[in-house]
Amino acid sequence: xxxxxxTLDEADTVRLMLxxxxxxxxxxxxxxxxxETNITNPKYSDDVSFLRQLIxxxxxxxxxxxxxxxQKFDEFDGNLFQFHILKHKFLELVCLRSEASDEDAKIAxxxxxxxxxxxxxxxxxxxxxxTLLSLSSETRLTDHVAFTDWNPSAxxxxxxxxxxxxxxxxxxxxxSTKNLSESSTNQRLLQLLxxxxxxxxSVEYCQAKATGLADTPRRESMLGSVSxxxxxxxxxxxxxxxxxxxxxxxxxxxxxxKAPRPRFVPVTTLEDVQAIRAVEVHPSGDVYALxxxxxxxxxxxxxxxxRWRMDGGTTQNAEVVAKKHKHHKGSIYCLAWNPTxxxxxxxxxxxxxKLCRYNASTRTFEGGEMELNHHDxxxxxxxxxxxxxxxxxxxxxxxxxxxKVYVTDCATGVVVRALSGHAGHIYSLxxxxxxxxxxxxxxxxxxxxxxxxxxxxxxxxxxxxxxxxGSPVASVCVDRGGRVLASGHEDSFxxxxxxxxxxxxxxxxxHAGDVRSVRFSKENNFLLTGSYxxxxxxxxxxxxxxxxxxxxxxxxxxxxxxxxxRWHPSSTMFVSTSADRTAVCWSLPPM
Length: 591
Fold this sequence. Notes:
The protein has helices spanning 10-24, 27-37, 46-56, 60-66, 78-99, 102-119, 126-135, 152-171, 188-211, 216-230, 305-310, and strands at 265-271, 276-281, 287-292, 297-301, 316-317, 319-324, 332-337, 343-348, 353-359, 364-372, 379-386, 393-399, 405-409, 414-419, 426-431, 436-441, 445-450, 458-461, 473-478, 484-489, 494-498, 503-508, 515-520, 526-531, 535-540, 552-557, 562-567, 574-578, 582-587. It contains 11 helices and 29 strands. The chain is 27% helix and 29% strand.
């Protein structure tokens, strides 16, 4: 019996995805996929690939130098090429200047003036030059009406797209690999999906007619999916999601029900020029704070999920309601809100902590800042507690340097306690009310503290994990009842520990990299984890018996290391920060 064999090239499949990502404007994800697979769409010559990498790395001067030899050819439009390169360099300088300190801003302004002067002879018309000249006076690039949605990744992709036709005749001619079959164009992935759905719908319709069994609802559902695919429109740059999990309080459906499991999708996204490290959610759930390596502190408003669903569930830019440029002299490593939400603390590798008052009704910072300078190393984590004697806020902080845990009176800025015990950097702190808090350290131990005592009340070594030598403790959290502790470790393990009986319940390893963030949901039903393997997972802890195998699933993914993730206090939304320079608010999709 004759048979046909279909061979599917993995590279072709990747190119389909790359074309789709570029069409949707998902440039960060596109570049991450290219780096991991070493495949581009289309397949460029070595010279073009090198030039493209220079542009996507923002090495503008090197790109100009690389193609300087082409200036000798009359057919090469060197003026237009230099215009595009210098224009995008200029735009990034405008953005960097707004993020710079006073001293750095002067240097950036001088560089900006030089770049504008270089641009002048290459501008195609006077109007273009006047537009760029007006940008040099803007406080922020995004304040200009033409650049409200500007971001570095999309800008660099647009630059390469503009110059490729200029350089293609000169650099592609020597390529022996150029082949029209080695590219995906014209939304090829969507075309294939539409054809597949139409084929399946047609087969089912014909079967229904042949057998006399009506199958109209199924056929209409399939054709509705086709209609939806045909109406796809570009969305803002987002980061991708992966596999899904079910986060409802109702019991999971039986296999017979075959109900599709919802997945988390990005609701809003924010991109910085450097990695975004810290996130902390306001107690009210109205806003969340972000701290970045760019030294910028931002407050972003949580999206209105009902309006988002009514608008079709497309990803939007995060709404920044307050912002402090150069808030620290170094990167912002950690953030914390006090229980009443009127005070926010930020810690940095400049060895300082800053306390700022916050007005929730106006969503603004108020008054001056209080700076604390008692740390002699990077401040890695903080949490607030209440002084039961006078009901004032106490700040618990720890980090590198002397490896002490400091307790500070926030009203006076005076250190009231310096707790010793750890022999390595303190990575994580967590309190669950009352006088108790817990710390995790590079020294592979977890220590339990009671403010009524000058010594830690219990020490737990991470050698209890499956790693015989133990592993540094990157993150700790405790459920609201103070009964169960979860800790994330650099060896990829997560430990579940019973505080009352002082025993390890189990160790699990759902990740393939450092587990940098662990957090229980408000009702203690789920544990959210984030890792350097770029993934975020949800572990279902509703069953009661935590010693049994716990269901878990990947719910979202960044294109680089996940640094922190935090639940919204009253919904299934959560916010994550990453080394890919983005912070994303995730939620279940509109149903």
